């Protein structure tokens, strides 16, 4: 269960530039990208796999139950935990494309049911069909998801029971806005955004040890904030982050230049996070590991957890990523840390 105090502690460190700081803004086409830089890098920089990494490396098996739309089976066959972000899309091979409704960490050698929503209508289900990586939902879809999740969390309702019709309505709306040929396939929209995001990513040179980014438009509106635990995880997810945010940005030059005080805008977000109130502003969800945030015009999701090293701090031998070393019996110190945060 995500720890609200860990989120507040992280925000406090950013404001004090204590091991984490707000970097020098980068400007591209009047849009400002503010890096979040972490100086204390975990010993195991790669301590979880992203969904795209896991599928690329064959570290997981994802299959359709074939009996219902709202859950699929996910098996982690690697030694690393696998972190699945809210809004990530499972592209069905002969079955419906699905979207994960929240952030979930799947432990090594575990099989779990992932709560999902269909983003491909109409299409039949196929029992045992597998899935590939389908990209990340846009900010409009995430905003709709977060609104639904927060109301469900308040009422202690499972995330998988959020309204499928609301999701389909958002699919049709975003596809129409993007002029997608097949209005029923959300992945076509994502693929169009991915091409543009990859071009943007090549132009942006983030500093070493960047773990996150905040995107601000010329009007001073925050279009997205994304943070991962380590530079490796940010680097792996960078294009996916830009892909998700890209559709929410107007790239048309207006001649007014970039927003003049972007770092102050970023500080304002983290100042609000230091005042985060459990239950009022943030709710833990049923079926999902993360916490959904809804406060002062900020919506999002965050996930905190304890990560264990694969090296024993006492005997320095390799060990499973668990609390107790099987070699010498040493107990690794527990420190809850922010693994993932996405806000807008």
Model description:
With 344 residues, this protein is an alpha+beta fold. It has one domain. It is 28% helix and 27% strand. The protein has seven helices and 18 strands. The chain has helices spanning 4-16, 51-56, 139-154, 164-177, 186-203, 231-246, 262-273; strands at 20-22, 26-28, 31-38, 49-50, 60-64, 71-76, 82-84, 88-92, 98-100, 104-106, 111-118, 131-136, 210-216, 222-228, 282-284, 291-295, 298-306, 336-343. The strands form three sheets. Strands 1, 2, 3, 13, 14, 15, 16, 17 and 18 form a nine-stranded antiparallel sheet that branches. Strands 5-6-11-9-8-12 form a six-stranded antiparallel sheet. Strands 4-7-10 form a three-stranded mixed sheet. Helix 3 (139-154) runs antiparallel to helix 4 and helix 5 (186-203) crosses helix 6 (231-246). The chain is globular.
